[in-house]
Give the backbone structure.
Amino acid sequence: MGLIGRRKNKKYNYKPRHFEYDGEGSPFSIGHKFDQYRTTVGENTGIKAKFRTAWVDLRQSSDRKTNLRLLAIIAILVLIFLFIIDFDLSIFYA
């Protein structure tokens, strides 16, 4: 296997018949629709830089009302779960 070498990949150049390039970018390019709004996508190299930018993004865009609503929903779901399994809540009282 090492004597023959690796096989070259075939190239595929597709040019649509009725495509008029307006200079904005290819409509055939694949990209996520929210990449332009994310700060964690892009030229970050290294895991430390990625975590730092993700943490800064989380701190800047966090919504206090959403966090409180999420905590309330989690607390209600935990209480419902404890009620379903017949957990005795009297151990938390003096």
Q: What stands out?
A: The chain has two helices and no strands. The two ends are 75 Å apart (CA to CA). The chain has a mean pLDDT of 77. Residues 16-94 form one domain.
